[in-house]
């Protein structure tokens, strides 16, 4: 063994710091003090104190969960250059991209993602790229074919000049990436590439304008009269790299799985399972990478970094999958929609890494094929219980490859014959009846039953005893587009809170994972942080209504100013917010962006999470079904609109805006009535509520400031009048209920 071979491919570093821990415990101690105070005085107060007690108990519980996550943070550093020095044959990797709607997900975005993957620093004969198109759109296929032509020029250019970002739209939009060696040759090549890329964009744009991108003959005949909800499988091999050139164009395959109206297609999870099977009969790589259509590879060495972990761990059990953080490009200044998740990703990510590992986030994740195929760490020899009977479906050829994937060590998997020869087999495994009577979606592959199939699938992996790894690289491994404006952000959050609650009530809920499986107890708690987003809305709403309720009924839910106990809530408020602000400062973000994230978190919790919670409850009661609503993606913010306009909250007539508007109206009314009572001396009665309630009510109004602007705004910046009416009615009923219980 040479010296370099002995060097580890990665290092783990503990990041535990004493001061944050002390602050976290202080907050916890203060929360318990508050609960103690409430319990002591419960009998002197009525219903309102009970509600306050319940909410605060809940918040304390959530805080315990947070402290648990953050307790032993770790970071991992990888050494791709050591991997390259080892001179071993790198293992094959199948790369999956999913798209579902050419309007919400413009093909130029998808195409950039595909191009960035095709041009990573990794031998092309070890890669294969599969695009799943749930819209069966000839436009997407057309764009993919065009992109493959462009990639033939782009890949050599990237490798020759070691281009730092390989998604062309990013590369050409950012002057600072224009590195090269300053030579005239580089300048010339750059100009050519720029021209080619502009041409590609034009072609795609023109094609998108027409109802069909080109004549549907020849290669495109399969798309004639296609109804996206009912059509046969379409699989097209766009390139093959038959010669196995290490610096050629990797194989590219377009897949649109069969859809029939009377077959559940399980949204993204269903698409992922088809990708797993089709790639299983075509290239059967032992590792798979999956990204959403908007998540391009931002670091050319991303695959090498991931391989450092997948190949570098002594025991495979420690690395069931490698998850990269989901980070975004073109974030607006001060994060007005609170959707960049920088702080959450940094602190919760490194915290989770110190436990059983990060949850699967649905994109930017490298999997082991055999883990996806349901194997457990102990099935080392591949005689896992899954490899029996008809668990994997009826295709004999596919079953043969499954057996190989399950039995071979992670480094090799026998590559099936030529890709285009497997099309018939591939069509069979992509048909909508294939999964009947199999374990797909139950024990194998992406698990069905939640609109956050990623969390459910990852849970199933942790359940079987795999640990997982979290990898942050500099530059970021992948970047995606964060939803902008009000409706998109809230719809996405609604889907998440629904899906996460579905996971909690799934047969594979984390409780059972700890009781009957190998999910660690503390990891189960970690899952709860996410899975309880929906129910959190109830407590947040109640708490936001409390100050108003106190003003309406002339009572108090906080200690009075002259009571020493007032120090408890004041300390919680000060210490907690200082702690949060310090996290923003440590991640080089502004205080304004803390505030934006704070208020957006309140808005999201009380609107989107509530709607998500209700829709999950309706589903559990079998009153309705949940659907995966695809998030709209925008390529970049470089439109004519100014930053300020782009950052302004927008509205539509979705019911998701009703609860927020109601809460705002209730608190505004409370402040108004409070002011009147104060001026008129409350008809001679003593005013029981005080500064505490007033400050809380004002704080709620400040958090919903964008809604206040929405009440006055017009067009998309205004709350639609139907929403205003509904909210006003609800607010009126609430005020009446409070007032009628006056003095009780
Ligand atoms: O029927 C469907 C619906 C969606 N998708 C794809 O799924 C991906 C994610 O959809 P998106 O609308 O972008 O959802 P996000 O909320 O941005 O996604 C986050 O949350 C999802 C779970 O809710 C995860 O699956 C994603 O990986 C994660 O990025 C996209 O590539 C879609 O094309 C499909 O392939 N088929
Ligand atoms: Mn997305």
UniProtKB/TrEMBL annotation:
Signal peptide positions on this chain: none
Keywords on record: Cell wall biogenesis/degradation, Glycosyltransferase, Membrane, Transferase, Transmembrane, Transmembrane helix
Binding site for Mn(2+): 268, 292
UniProt binding sites for UDP-alpha-D-glucose: 105, 134
Chain segments annotated as transmembrane: 21-40, 46-67, 566-582, 603-621, 656-679, 686-707
GO (cellular component) term, any one: endomembrane system
Active site, renumbered: 134, 454
Topological relation to the membrane, as annotated: Multi-pass membrane protein
Main subcellular location of this protein, as a coarse class: membrane
Residues forming coiled coils: none
Domain of life: Eukaryota
Matching Pfam families: Cellulose_synt
GO MF term set: cellulose synthase (UDP-forming) activity
UniProt-annotated location(s): Endomembrane system
GO biological process, one term: cell wall organization
Protein name: DH200=94 genomic scaffold, scaffold_462
Species for this entry: Coffea canephora (Robusta coffee)
């Amino acid at each position: 063994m040479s010296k370099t071979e002995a060097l580890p491919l990665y290092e783990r570093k503990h990041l535990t710091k004493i001061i944050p821990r002390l602050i976290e415990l202080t907050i916890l101690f203060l929360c318990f003090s508050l609960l103690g105070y409430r319990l002591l005085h419960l009998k002197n107060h009525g219903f309102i104190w009970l509600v306050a007690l319940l909410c605060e108990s809940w918040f304390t519980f959530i805080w315990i969960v947070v402290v648990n996550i953050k307790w032993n943070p770790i970071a991992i550093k990888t050494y791709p250059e050591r991997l390259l020095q080892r001179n071993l044959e790198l293992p094959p990797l199948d790369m999956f991209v999913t798209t579902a709607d050419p309007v919400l997900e413009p093909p130029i975005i998808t195409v950039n993602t595909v191009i960035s993957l095709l041009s990573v620093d990794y031998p092309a004969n070890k890669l294969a790229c599969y695009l799943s198109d749930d819209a069966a759109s000839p436009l997407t296929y057309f764009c993919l074919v065009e992109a493959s032509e462009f990639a033939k020029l782009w890949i050599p250019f990237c490798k020759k000049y070691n281009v730092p970002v390989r998604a062309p739209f990013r590369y050409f939009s950012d002057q600072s990436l224009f590195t090269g060696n300053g030579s005239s040759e580089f300048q010339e090549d750059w100009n050519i590439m720029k021209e080619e890329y502009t041409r590609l964009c034009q072609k795609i744009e023109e094609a998108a304008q027409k109802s069909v991108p080109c004549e549907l003959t020849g290669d495109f005949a399969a798309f004639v009269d296609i109804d996206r909800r009912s059509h046969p499988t379409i699989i097209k091999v766009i390139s093959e790299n038959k010669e196995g050139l290490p610096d050629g164009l990797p194989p590219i395959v377009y897949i649109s799985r069969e859809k029939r109206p009377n077959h559940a297609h399980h949204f993204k999870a269903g698409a992922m399972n088809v990708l797993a099977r089709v790639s299983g009969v075509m290239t059967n790589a032992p590792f798979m990478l999956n990204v959403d259509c908007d998540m391009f590879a931002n670091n050319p060495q991303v695959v090498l970094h991931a391989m450092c972990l997948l190949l570098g761990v002594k025991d495979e059990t420690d690395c069931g999958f490698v998850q990269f953080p989901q980070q975004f490009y073109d974030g607006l200044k001060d994060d007005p929609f609170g959707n960049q998740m920088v702080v959450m990703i940094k602190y919760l990510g490194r915290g989770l890494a110190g436990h059983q590992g990060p949850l699967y986030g649905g994109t930017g994740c490298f999997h082991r094929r055999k883990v996806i195929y349901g194997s457990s760490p102990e099935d080392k020899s591949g005689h896992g219980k899954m490899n029996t009977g008809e668990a994997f479906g009826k295709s004999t050829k596919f079953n043969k490859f499954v057996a190989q994937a399950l039995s071979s060590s992670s480094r090799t998997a026998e590559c099936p014959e030529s890709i285009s020869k497997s099309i018939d087999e591939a069509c069979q495994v992509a048909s909508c009846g294939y999964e009947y009577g199999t374990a797909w979606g139950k024990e194998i592959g992406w698990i069905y039953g939640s609109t956050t199939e990623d969390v459910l699938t990852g849970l199933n992996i942790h359940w079987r005893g795999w640990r997982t790894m979290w990898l942050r690289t500099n530059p970021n491994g992948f970047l995606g587009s964060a939803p902008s404006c009000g409706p998109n952000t809230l719809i996405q959050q609604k889907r998440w809170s629904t899906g996460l609650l579905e996971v909690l009530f799934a047969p594979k809920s984390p409780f059972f994972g700890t009781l009957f499986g190998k999910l660690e107890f503390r990891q189960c708690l970690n899952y709860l942080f996410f899975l309880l987003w929906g129910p959190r809305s109830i407590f947040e709403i109640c708490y936001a209504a409390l100050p108003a309720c106190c003003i309406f009924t002339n009572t108090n839910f906080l200690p009075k100013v002259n009571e020493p106990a007032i120090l408890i809530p004041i300390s919680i408020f000060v210490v907690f917010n200082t702690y949060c602000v310090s996290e923003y400062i440590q991640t080089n973000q502004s205080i304004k962006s803390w505030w934006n994230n704070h208020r957006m978190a309140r808005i999201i919790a009380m609107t989107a999470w509530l709607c998500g919670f209700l829709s999950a409850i309706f589903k559990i009661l079998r009153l309705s079904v949940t659907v995966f609503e695809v998030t709209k993606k925008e390529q970049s913010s470089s439109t004519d609109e100014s930053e300020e306009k782009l950052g302004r909250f927008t509205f539509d007539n979705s019911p998701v805006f009703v609860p927020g508007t109601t809460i705002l109206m209730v608190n505004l009314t409370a402040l108004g009535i409070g002011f009147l009572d104060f001026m008129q001396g409350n008809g001679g009665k003593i005013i029981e509520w005080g500064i505490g309630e007033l400050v809380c009510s004002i704080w709620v109004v400040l958090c919903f400031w964008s809604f206040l602007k929405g009440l006055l705004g017009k067009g998309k910046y205004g709350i639609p009048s139907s929403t205003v009416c509904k909210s006003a009615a609800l607010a009126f009923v609430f005020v009446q209920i409070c007032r009628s219980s006056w003095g009780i």
